[in-house]
UniProtKB/TrEMBL annotation:
Cell compartments where the protein resides: Cell membrane
GO cellular component terms, semicolon-separated: plasma membrane
Transmembrane domains' residue ranges: 12-37, 66-84, 96-112, 118-138, 150-172, 203-221
InterPro entries named in the record: ABC_transp_permease
UniProt keyword terms in alphabetical order: Cell membrane, Membrane, Transmembrane, Transmembrane helix
Lineage: Bacteria, Pseudomonadati, Pseudomonadota, Alphaproteobacteria, Rhodobacterales
GO MF terms held by the record: transmembrane transporter activity
Protein name per its UniProtKB record: Ribose ABC transport system, permease protein RbsC
Domain of life, source organism: Bacteria
Signal peptide per UniProt: none
Annotated membrane topology: Multi-pass membrane protein
Source organism: Roseicyclus elongatus DSM 19469
């Protein structure tokens, strides 16, 4: 009888080749679907994978967008890894991202038109605290009332979207916008702008923070006793506190780490280089759909 057994140590070859294989399988599966729809699969794969990097007309814009969009996604993935390792399933990243962006933008707009260099770091800190506070809602409900953090964090996304719509159309709306929804353009003011560090690359401080967070998370999970405790708590057959620790503290810590990094990145990413309109904006026609990894402001709503 054939039985699958876990390797005692991960294979370095498969660790390095797995992302490459995943991309190749994605291209093959996508090509088959395009072929089933009667489209040229080679042309479709070229448009999706090749043109954004090497197209002579569009690559100069699309290449920097890779880093701009990757920054918040990297931080969200790191937060997910910490929460999942601890056995906490928080899937409300979008809501935490939105609230973090609103809090950070509100801080910057409250000090408009000041050009103090401390405004932007303050926006990042306030954004992180806003996302953390939003994540504490499912954390407190789970530890005190044993609610399901998956459902609570997911449903809070819709509450955050409603708050965003209210902010864009009322208390954060640009008074000079002639009634159109959206806040002031934060990229046009030195105190709230987050310019490129290297021209034409999309590299700004939010991307730098994401790379630093990757290294920090690796050290934490693989070289620090706290990371060992996080993994041990997640592997326990039943929720229980480790000696000298609190189960409530572990739960809130996992949810908080899950929210702080992407929420702080919401402020820095949305005012990144080449932003079309770095503001809190909304286009709500029918049922709104949040498109938080996209350009066009801290958070945009698209129909």
């Amino acid at each position: 009888m054939i039985r699958l057994e876990k390797r005692p140590t991960p294979s370095r070859f498969w660790t390095l080749s797995t992302p490459v294989i995943a991309v190749l399988l994605t291209m093959i599966a996508g090509g088959l679907m395009f072929a089933a729809l009667g489209q040229d699969p080679v042309e479709a794969i070229r448009v999706i994978f090749w043109d954004p990097l090497f197209h002579p007309q569009f690559a100069s814009y699309s290449r920097p967008q890779l880093l701009v969009k990757a920054g918040p996604l990297i931080l969200i993935a790191i937060g997910l890894s910490l929460g999942f390792r601890a056995g906490i399933w928080n899937i409300g990243a979008e809501g935490q991202y939105i609230i973090g962006a609103i809090c950070g933008a509100a801080f910057g707009l409250a000090l408009y038109p000041s050009e103090n260099v401390l405004i932007f770091p303050g926006m990042v800190i306030i954004g992180a605290l806003g996302g953390w506070a939003w994540a504490m809602i499912p954390g407190v409900l789970k530890t005190r009332f044993r609610t399901n953090e998956i459902l609570v964090s997911l449903l809070l996304v819709y509450v955050a979207e409603a708050i965003l719509a209210s902010a864009a159309t009322s208390w954060l709306r640009n008074p000079e916008a002639r009634g159109f929804p959206g806040s002031r353009n934060l990229a046009r003011h030195p105190g709230t702008d987050n310019p490129e560090l290297i021209a034409g690359t999309g590299m700004h401080w939010g991307v730098v923070a994401a790379f630093i967070a990757v290294i920090g998370a690796y050290v934490l999970l693989n070289r620090h006793v706290l990371g060992y405790q996080i993994k041990l708590a997640g592997q326990a057959p039943a929720p229980r506190a480790l000696p000298g620790s609190s189960l409530r503290a572990w739960c809130c810590c996992a949810l908080g780490c899950r929210a702080q990094w992407p929420a702080s990145q919401a402020c820095s990413k949305c005012r990144g280089p080449r932003a079309r309109s770095a503001s809190i904006s909304t286009r709500a026609t029918g049922s709104p759909r949040s498109s938080w990894p996209s350009w066009g402001g801290c958070i945009r709503w698209a129909s």
